[in-house]
């Protein structure tokens, strides 16, 4: 029996024949088949990498209709193809190489959704997505780089994007770890509050469609600029000065996030020490620690400097994709826009809870901008005078 070297296509059986013809590669399987299909047309399927490399312009590479839409039917074929090829690494590699890289990533993302749902409901812990939040975007970016390499495409831009992505993942994973996010039973306190407000039935629906499904898809959509960079690499040469500027901007924002995280961590550790033992660290005054939240360093310029940098990061990744394809906008905006919408809603809830917990938080909101410094803040900082509405000299320094 002849070996079928490609299993990623449809097979058609001619009437009265004992042979199965692979419509993608033309190989014949001499295995006797007892089912006849008389009305199935024979469709010639080109290898996917040839389709992706058949784009006529950079603008085509950023077109959803010319890249993603024609290949979405692969999503339905992938599960069967993979199951039929589990015993052959060669066949699995061919499936991978002849499947659209976005569709492959989409299938993985959709597979994760029911996994998140089942685990969260079984454990009654709804931070399952949170545990992979910092990891999944880099996994998708690694996937795009691997696909580009085995397809013989230029990967310099993708390599730089991946390097940033790994740095982003390391910073966020480390911060989540030291806060106890990976401890058994650890959960974002906001889920319990939302569950109490919605009730069990509505919260279960929220878990299905938002916590498990929408968030999983969002982490994939964030990385779609890497996909159009992959497709457009056939038209692009080496990295340009502008590409390096994008890279440096992203690394700079990750550094800002790290500094903001560290400043908040140092304050919370000092507050814990002060409240538990009355021991006062040298860098904080008692009234600062008693206030309960950090207002120094980057936090004197922005109430959420890490959130501001985080949103800016994915806007810049999107703009980098636009620059690469020479488009003013493209479909990958849905990832960055959805991420920003999520952060706006999340920040609003966080601030409502902070205002209830800390009496002086309302004054802090008047003095300091949510994400970006206000004009009067900048003037105050330059003049070195005390900000208005603080009530105490040590409120914000």
UniProtKB/TrEMBL annotation:
The keyword Membrane applies. It comes from Blumeria graminis f. sp. hordei (strain DH14) (Barley powdery mildew). It comes from the Eukaryota. Gene3D superfamilies: 1.20.120.1630. This is DUF1295 domain-containing protein. It holds the Pfam family DUF1295. One of its GO terms (cellular component) is membrane. The chain crosses the membrane at residues 102-120, 198-221, 241-260. Keywords: Membrane, Transmembrane, Transmembrane helix. InterPro entries: UstE-like (IPR010721).
């Amino acid at each position: 029996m002849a070996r079928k070297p490609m299993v990623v296509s449809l097979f058609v059986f001619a009437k009265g024949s004992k042979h199965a013809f692979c419509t993608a590669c033309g190989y014949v399987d001499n295995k006797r088949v007892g089912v006849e299909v008389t009305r199935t047309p024979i469709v010639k399927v080109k290898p996917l990498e040839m389709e992706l490399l058949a784009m006529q312009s950079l603008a085509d590479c950023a077109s959803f209709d010319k890249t993603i839409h024609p290949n979405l039917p692969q999503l339905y074929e992938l599960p069967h193809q993979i199951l039929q090829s589990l015993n052959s690494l060669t066949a699995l590699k061919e499936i991978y190489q002849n499947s659209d890289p976005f569709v492959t990533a989409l299938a993985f993302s959709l597979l994760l959704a029911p996994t998140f749902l089942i685990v969260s409901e079984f454990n009654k812990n709804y931070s399952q997505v949170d545990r992979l939040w910092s990891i999944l975007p880099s996994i998708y970016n690694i996937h795009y780089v691997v696909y580009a390499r085995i397809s013989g495409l230029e990967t310099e831009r993708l390599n730089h994007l991946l390097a940033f992505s790994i740095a982003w993942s390391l910073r966020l994973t480390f911060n989540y770890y030291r806060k106890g996010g990976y401890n058994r039973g650890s959960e974002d306190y906001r889920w319990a509050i939302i569950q109490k407000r919605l009730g069990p039935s509505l919260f279960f629906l929220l878990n299905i469609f938002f916590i498990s499904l929408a968030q999983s898809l969002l982490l994939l959509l964030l990385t779609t600029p890497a996909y159009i960079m992959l497709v457009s690499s056939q038209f692009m040469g080496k990295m340009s000065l502008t590409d390096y500027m994008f890279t440096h901007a992203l690394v700079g924002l990750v550094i800002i996030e790290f500094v903001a995280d560290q400043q908040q961590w140092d304050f919370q550790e000092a507050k814990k020490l002060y409240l538990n033992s009355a021991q006062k660290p040298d860098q904080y005054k008692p009234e600062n620690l008693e206030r309960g939240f950090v207002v120094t360093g980057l936090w004197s310029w922005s109430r959420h400097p890490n959130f501001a940098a985080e949103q800016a990061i994915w806007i810049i990744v999107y703009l980098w994709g636009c620059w690469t394809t020479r488009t003013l906008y493209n479909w990958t905006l849905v990832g960055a826009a959805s991420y920003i919408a999520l952060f706006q809603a999340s920040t609003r809830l966080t601030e409502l809870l902070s205002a209830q917990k800390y009496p002086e938080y309302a004054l802090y909101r008047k003095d300091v901008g949510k994400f970006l410094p206000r004009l009067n803040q900048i003037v105050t900082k330059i003049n070195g005078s005390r900000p208005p509405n603080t009530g105490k000299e040590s409120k914000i320094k």
